[in-house]
Write a structure and sequence with these properties.
single chain; alpha+beta; FomD barrel-like fold; seven-stranded mixed barrel; six-stranded mixed β-sheet; 11 helices; about 30% strand; globular
Length: about 475
């Protein structure tokens, strides 16, 4: 039975999905143990699901490669066709690479990674390397550093501990065991993983002996290895880029276990103190007014934010914060923010210079599948507009979030409409999102000018007069 550890803001919903699909939940928190009435297991996980630290609102799945794929399929069956990304090679895999130019090594055909200590090697050298980073810029180390359920071999002869190991006695025991055998690693060291805190001293010694044997076995394989041979599989990773539809499904799944407002998971992306959310959900349980309280909490959140962050998340995981912007209006789901633009460069898609005093008014409809930036000069002259096509806009505790869908439209100061980056649609790793982007693009093409004129009128009613020449 595959053992899964679940952490993060989606823990309750994901635990329900995992249990219903027959997985064993291990190392669960006290809250999860209580909510699901399951027994505490200290066994190491085959797969861990947690929040992605680099992508707001995304899931990070890591573990044994075959099991990661199964867990990912289980999640996607429940939340729909969400975008996800997998690195080209597993983390901590040991690969026979070929040194390339400019400090890189080729670890698979056409796949280059930065090589640590590259000055010591020449292009064409064949070298076993460990993949120490596979998200973003790939990075490889010339040391053999496999990982096991309980520890990771590291490149210095020291003993380190996961920050999640809190018990002083466990810390002392693990350091003692590590130091007693570290000389058998030939200049390498170890970092005990969080699962090691549950080991007895005898079990810790056995775990370290197995890691030492693993390093020696990999060293034996090197002599006969061919280019790009994988000498140790490592751990596979998948980042799931959740959007509004997926998060609302997780809200509903969580609501079957404990009272949950719609928008719960989006709010928690940036929420540190959950007291207001907890109280609102207590009221949901008492009053059975889920829809009304969900809307009230969203309105409360946006009404009390003077500055708004706009979390622009791309399907490849890149995150750009387009804020903070000054909130100038919020009512009935319509949010308008103002940002002063720095002079220099050009306005995206418009080929118009950014000048001193230029401002951008972002018109944001909560739940809408597009976001509009209207640009004006210091004297209020309309310079153009940018219509971003995205997944439905959600409210976070510090602003809003959406997933960008690549294709966009621009409207220049003469009210000519231009579609940009339509060729990038095919790169979106989700058929559902491609279809949604195409539908929104089709809908906006014919009424983009009317939409921009209408929003300029709304700004004028707020005293933010923008002037343009009638065509």
């Amino acid at each position: 039975m595959t053992k899964v550890r679940v952490r993060g803001i989606y823990a309750t919903a994901l635990t329900k999905i995992m249990l219903e699909d027959g997985y064993d939940i291990v190392q669960a928190t006290d809250t999860i143990l209580s909510r699901f009435n399951i027994l505490h297991s200290t066994e190491p996980p085959d797969v861990t699901i947690k929040d992605d630290e680099n992508i707001p609102g995304a899931l990070f799945i890591i573990g044994k490669c075959s099991e990661v794929n199964r867990v990912l399929e289980s999640i996607l069956r429940r939340i729909g066709d969400a975008a996800f990304n997998k690195p080209p090679v597993p983390l901590y895999s040991v690969i026979m690479g070929v040194v390339a130019d400019n400090g890189h090594i080729e670890v698979a055909p056409g796949v280059l990674a930065l090589l640590e200590g590259s000055n010591y090697f020449r292009p064409g050298d064949k070298l076993p390397v460990t993949m120490v980073n596979v998200t973003g810029q790939l990075r490889a180390s010339p040391y053999i550093m496999p990982t096991t359920s309980y520890l990771r071999v590291i490149d210095s002869p020291t003993v380190k501990l996961s920050r999640h190991i809190k018990d002083p006695d466990a810390k002392m025991m693990l350091v003692r065991v590590g130091l007693s055998k570290i000389n058998q690693l030939g200049g390498l060291g170890i970092r005990w993983r969080s699962s090691a805190q549950y080991l007895s001293e005898e079990e810790a010694e056995k775990a370290l002996d197995e890691a030492i044997s693993l390093v020696n076995a990999i060293r034996v394989k090197i002599a006969e290895a061919r280019d790009y041979d994988v000498l140790f599989e490592g751990e596979c990773i998948a980042s799931v880029i959740l959007d509004a539809e997926a998060r609302l499904m997780l809200d509903d799944i969580r609501n079957t276990i404990v009272p949950t407002v719609r928008g719960h998971h989006a709010l928690k992306i940036t929420m540190k103190n959950t007291e207001i959310l907890d109280y609102t959900e207590y009221l949901v349980g008492e009053l059975k007014m889920r829809d009304e309280l969900s809307r009230a909490l969203i309105n409360y959140t946006l009404s009390n934010l003077p500055m708004i962050n706009v979390h622009h998340v791309k399907v490849n995981g890149e995150h750009i914060n387009l804020g903070p912007g000054e909130k100038v209006h919020y009512s009935n789901g319509l949010l308008i923010i103002r940002r002063e633009l720095k002079p220099g460069g050009i306005l995206d898609g418009l080929n118009v210079a950014k000048e001193y005093g230029d401002v951008a008014y972002s018109v944001i409809g909560i739940g809408e599948r597009h976001l509009i930036h209207i640009y004006a000069s210091h004297d209020g002259s309309f310079k153009g507009a940018y219509i971003n096509i995205n997944t439905p806009i959600e409210v976070t505790w510090d602003g809003v979030v959406y997933v960008d869908l690549e294709v966009d439209l621009t409207v220049d100061k003469g009210f000519n409409v231009n579609v940009i980056d339509e060729d990038k649609l095919s790169s979106i790793p989700s058929r559902r999102l491609i279809n949604e982007a195409e539908d929104e693009l089709s809908r906006l093409k014919d009424n983009a000018v009317d939409l921009i004129r209408s929003h300029i009128g709304t700004l004028s009613k707020l005293g933010l007069n923008i002037h343009y020449q009638e065509s």
